[in-house]
């Protein structure tokens, strides 16, 4: 099977293939995730606990299959790994949409979670190999622009398809990704792949060693300790919010008359507004925030962003007006987009080259562990009481992150390390990417 996928039938250029792949994948993910949770609630009939459990299963799947799927990308072929991955993601989407039961949602998320681990990291490593490290920077910049553009197109497509039925966008996204995999089998080139050396490959022992090394570094650097703690707290609190804020809206409010009372149209517009607001916040962080603040006192804007997230989660739980609740949802997304580049710069300035990949990987693992540990209890709490109660508890759980950032608000760059920018790691250094497995979903909020 792997040998059949190794060579394209009609080889295309690597960069153009990457751009088309990015556009189609962004379109498909946005098409699926814009209304996916509404579909799970309205059509499948999942209760709050089941909704959160589906997300937790996805996170756990990505975490557990990180190493096994890495064998394909590290030893056999990045191309093969990417093709298998997109086909499995599409199959998972389509299966969930067609069968539309709780069991199908669990199985579908396991399948697409496994597919995600095949693609994440392998895709970036493939394009880096093909165009060269010195030329890949502009390619990734262009990728971001394409991803945003086609995410918006996919959101609009989800709204149009959703008018036909809430299954339609989920199934359409799955079919699109399976067709993408077939197209990649036909044209995706791979001219510069070399198997990863044994010492650099991902293994469970490697993950254990990274965790131990990360703890050793955290004991000596306060900033690293804070980021690991915050990642754990955010993970504990985020799963219940990500999975249940839409249900909170559906249960508590009617859709505005301006949308004709239609849930599909309303949630499509909500997603578009959220995307635009987060984009503006990201631009504000990168272009308008005074550079001296990021360089000398990064903890202050990050703490304020963390406070905004806590207030937003509490607001979604407690406010009784639809537009105020939505404003809180958008505020949370904007705060995350605003603080992300500052956090990345800050933590990287407190790491040396030899330990950077280890600590960043461990940071992702802490978030993933938090989501797996925190999701089911808070989901069960929402089912036994109410969603607002669970959201208030999530806000309380995340609140210490504000204090943590304020206590270590100043930059402390190691003398041996100049300020750095965040780089994409190759496939074998990206342990713990399960923390980002719901990234496509969150980007639409």
From TrEMBL:
<keyword id="KW-1133">Transmembrane helix</keyword>
<feature type="compositionally biased region" description="Basic and acidic residues">
    <location>
        <begin position="420"/>
        <end position="433"/>
    </location>
</feature>
<feature type="transmembrane region" description="Helical">
    <location>
        <begin position="80"/>
        <end position="104"/>
    </location>
</feature>
<feature type="transmembrane region" description="Helical">
    <location>
        <begin position="226"/>
        <end position="245"/>
    </location>
</feature>
<feature type="transmembrane region" description="Helical">
    <location>
        <begin position="170"/>
        <end position="188"/>
    </location>
</feature>
<feature type="transmembrane region" description="Helical">
    <location>
        <begin position="265"/>
        <end position="290"/>
    </location>
</feature>
<feature type="transmembrane region" description="Helical">
    <location>
        <begin position="387"/>
        <end position="408"/>
    </location>
</feature>
<dbReference type="InterPro" id="IPR053160">
    <property type="entry name" value="MFS_DHA3_Transporter"/>
</dbReference>
<keyword id="KW-0472">Membrane</keyword>
<feature type="transmembrane region" description="Helical">
    <location>
        <begin position="51"/>
        <end position="73"/>
    </location>
</feature>
<feature type="transmembrane region" description="Helical">
    <location>
        <begin position="12"/>
        <end position="39"/>
    </location>
</feature>
<dbReference type="InterPro" id="IPR020846">
    <property type="entry name" value="MFS_dom"/>
</dbReference>
<keyword id="KW-0812">Transmembrane</keyword>
<protein>
    <submittedName>
        <fullName>MFS transporter</fullName>
    </submittedName>
</protein>
<dbReference type="InterPro" id="IPR011701">
    <property type="entry name" value="MFS"/>
</dbReference>
<feature type="domain" description="Major facilitator superfamily (MFS) profile">
    <location>
        <begin position="1"/>
        <end position="412"/>
    </location>
</feature>
<feature type="transmembrane region" description="Helical">
    <location>
        <begin position="302"/>
        <end position="326"/>
    </location>
</feature>
<dbReference type="InterPro" id="IPR036259">
    <property type="entry name" value="MFS_trans_sf"/>
</dbReference>
<feature type="region of interest" description="Disordered">
    <location>
        <begin position="415"/>
        <end position="445"/>
    </location>
</feature>
<dbReference type="Pfam" id="PF07690">
    <property type="entry name" value="MFS_1"/>
</dbReference>
């Amino acid at each position: 099977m792997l040998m059949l996928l190794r060579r394209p039938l009609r080889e295309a250029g690597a960069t153009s293939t990457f751009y088309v792949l990015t556009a189609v994948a962004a379109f498909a993910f946005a098409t699926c995730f814009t209304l996916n949770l509404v579909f799970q609630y309205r059509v499948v009939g999942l209760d709050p606990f089941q909704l959160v459990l589906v997300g937790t299963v996805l996170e756990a799947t990505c975490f557990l299959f990180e190493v096994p799927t890495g064998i394909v990308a590290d030893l056999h072929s990045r191309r093969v790994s990417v093709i298998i991955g997109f086909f499995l993601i599409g199959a998972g989407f389509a299966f969930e949409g067609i069968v539309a039961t709780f069991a199908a949602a669990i199985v579908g998320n396991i399948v697409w979670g496994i597919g995600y681990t095949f693609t994440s990291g392998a895709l970036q490593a493939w394009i880096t190999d093909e165009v060269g490290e010195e030329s890949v920077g502009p390619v990734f910049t262009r990728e971001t622009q394409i991803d945003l553009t086609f995410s918006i197109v996919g959101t609009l497509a989800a709204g149009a398809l959703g008018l036909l039925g809430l299954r339609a966008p989920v199934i359409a996204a799955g079919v699109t990704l399976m067709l993408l995999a077939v197209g990649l089998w036909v044209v995706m080139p791979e001219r510069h792949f070399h198997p990863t050396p044994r010492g650099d490959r991902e293994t469970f022992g490697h993950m254990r060693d990274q965790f131990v090394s990360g703890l050793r570094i955290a004991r000596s650097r306060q900033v690293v300790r804070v980021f690991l703690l915050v990642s754990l707290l955010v993970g504990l609190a985020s799963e219940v919010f990500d999975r249940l804020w839409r249900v909170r809206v559906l249960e508590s409010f009617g859709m505005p008359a301006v949308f004709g009372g239609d849930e599909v149209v309303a949630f499509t517009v909500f997603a578009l507004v959220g995307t635009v607001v987060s984009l503006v916040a990201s631009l504000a962080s990168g272009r308008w925030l005074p550079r001296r603040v990021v360089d000398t006192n990064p903890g202050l804007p990050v703490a304020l962003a963390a406070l905004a997230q806590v207030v937003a989660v509490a607001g979604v739980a407690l406010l009784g007006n639809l537009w105020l609740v939505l404003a809180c949802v958008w505020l949370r997304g904007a705060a995350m987009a605003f603080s992300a580049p500052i956090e990345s710069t800050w933590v990287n300035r407190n790491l040396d080259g030899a330990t950077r990949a280890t600590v960043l990987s461990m940071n992702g693992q802490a978030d993933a562990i938090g989501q797996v540990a925190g999701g089911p209890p808070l989901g069960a709490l929402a089912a036994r009481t109410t969603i607002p109660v669970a959201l208030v508890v999530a806000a309380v759980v995340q609140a210490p992150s504000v204090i943590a950032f304020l206590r270590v608000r100043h930059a402390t760059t190691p003398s041996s390390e100049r300020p750095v920018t965040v780089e994409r790691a190759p496939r074998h250094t990206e342990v713990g990417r399960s923390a980002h497995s719901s990234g496509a979903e969150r980007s639409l909020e």
